[in-house]
Amino acid sequence: MKEQTIAILMATYNGERFLREQLDSIMVQTYHDWHLYVHDDGSTDATMDILKDYAGRFPQQISLLDYASQGGACRNFLSMMERVDAPYYMFCDQDDVWVSEKVEISLKEMQALEASLQGKGIVVFSDLCIVDEHLKVTYESMWLHTGVYPQYLRTFDDFGGHTANVTGSTMLFNRLAKDCCRYGAQKAIMHDCWVCLCTLKEGGLIHGINQKLVLYRQHGNNCLGSGDTEAKAVNWTYRLRHLTKVIRSNRNYYAMLASLGYGSIIKYIKFKLKYKKRIKLGRY
């Protein structure tokens, strides 16, 4: 089998409800030079039956990776990234729906950036449209809903100060960005965040595409969701009500940053406040 331009990495676990819709949205992409690699993390429902059906019908485009369960989405995605070699990579969740031009638009944006930034690790990512389990739109823009400002995620320091940043299912990254991930990932809390942080640490680029290329389905059993409140509503009252969760989240996130040599917790707090100030000013 010849090497495909793009390796799409899909991590699955008990995803039978929506898996076929996601697979179908990949199969009708306007760009065709891709290969889908799937690793299941020990599903007990019909997920594997669905995957075997599609892999049997489309063997030139879908491969099922057979190795031990990894115990969660982060390790599952990173384990596939380690095992698959390709010029470009995309992460894929099991329960979303991709816009048919998603791969084509992302690759064109990537190649335009590579033409002027040769030798750099690059991650491109897009906005998402948040939908319910029936694909009814609940929020037109994930970026506006959660306060993602791509123009302020250009450095390792800035990215480290904002936890809700790049959604993995929207990412396309080149092999050089993958090569940036040479640090031990024991403290990584999510695969998408880890790839972006490692890329920026090595002087690469994170670039946002201001188009909604994924229907981000929220159905109550998401591994990670879109958040239950808008960024502007996350005030001190909200934080006090969710204090334990906030402390645990920040502790784990800072541990990941510290493993990459980010610096002191004072620096982390400084850049978090800087990012929050930008959101408050509404500088989109």
Description:
By secondary structure, the chain is α/β, with parallel strands linked by helices. It has a single domain (6-221, 229-281), classed as Spore Coat Polysaccharide Biosynthesis Protein SpsA, Chain A, CATH 3.90.550.10. It contains 11 helices and 9 strands. The chain has helices spanning 19-27, 47-57, 73-83, 102-116, 142-146, 156-160, 175-180, 191-201, 236-241, 243-259, 265-281; strands at 6-12, 34-40, 62-64, 88-92, 97-98, 122-131, 137-139, 172-174, 205-217. It is globular and about 55 Å long.
Protein topology:
Blueprint: E1 6-12, H1 19-27, E2 34-40, H2 47-57, E3 62-64, H3 73-83, E4 88-92, E5 97-98, H4 102-116, E6 122-131, E7 137-139, H5 142-146, H6 156-160, E8 172-174, H7 175-180, H8 191-201, E9 205-217, H9 236-241, H10 243-259, H11 265-281
Parallel strand pairs: 1-2, 1-4, 2-3, 6-9
Antiparallel strand pairs: 4-8, 5-9, 6-7, 6-8
Largest sheet: 9 strands, mixed
| Helical proportion, percent range | 25-40%
The name CATH uses for the topology is Spore Coat Polysaccharide Biosynthesis Protein SpsA, Chain A
Shape: globular
- The total count of strands amounts to 9
Question: Mean pLDDT, as a whole number?
Answer: 91
Please tell me the total number of domains. Answer: 1
Structural class: alpha/beta
For the record, give the distance between the C-alpha atoms at the N and C termini, rounded to a whole number.
45 Å
Uncertain segments: none
- CA-based gyration radius: 18 Å
